[in-house]
Amino acid sequence: MTPNNPVGTVDMYMVTHHGLPTSNNPALVLAVDPTVTVMCNGPTKGGAEQTLKTLREIKSLKDMYQLHRNVKLGPELQTSAELIANGGTTATCQGRWIKASISPDGTSYTVQIGPKGKQRTYQSREH
Questions:
Q1: What is the DSSP letter of 27?
Q2: CATH number of 12-123
Q3: I need a labelling partner for 40 at 20 to 30 A (CA). Which of 14, 81, 108, 111 fits?
Q4: DSSP bridge partners of 121
């Protein structure tokens, strides 16, 4: 990824391997410079502090989505509660999903949490 980034920048980054730090090297994450991230972590697996800190360093980042609140970390280290699909433990999981949809013309995309969640719209980058 350095000094030359063969991938370029991306609109959305699916945080790899549940958000474990071993799979989210800051050189890669910061080089692709996503606008939105989605992390498919569990209440106790993934969503690591180091990964969350790396995501916060992304220059173009508008929003970070998490599938679950990491019950081992304080709220100040995680994304805002409204962008976390499931806030409880495994036993109390609501089973909400995170869905991304791209507009037919490719100029924008939406992200929604669960069937009744508010859709947020983001503009696609021109590449």
A1: H
A2: 3.50.50
A3: 108
A4: 110
The residues of the chain scoring below 50 in pLDDT are none
CA distance from start to end of the chain: 18
Q: pLDDT exceeding 70 applies to what percent of the chain?
A: 99
Q: Where are the domains of the chain?
A: 12-123
Query: Counting Cβ atoms within 10 Å, is residue 47 exposed (0-12), middle (13-18) or buried (19+)?
Result: buried
Pairing of β 12-15 and β 108-113: unpaired
DSSP state of 92: T
pTM of model > 0.90: yes
Instruction: Give CA–CA dist 45/66, Å, rounded.
Output: 12
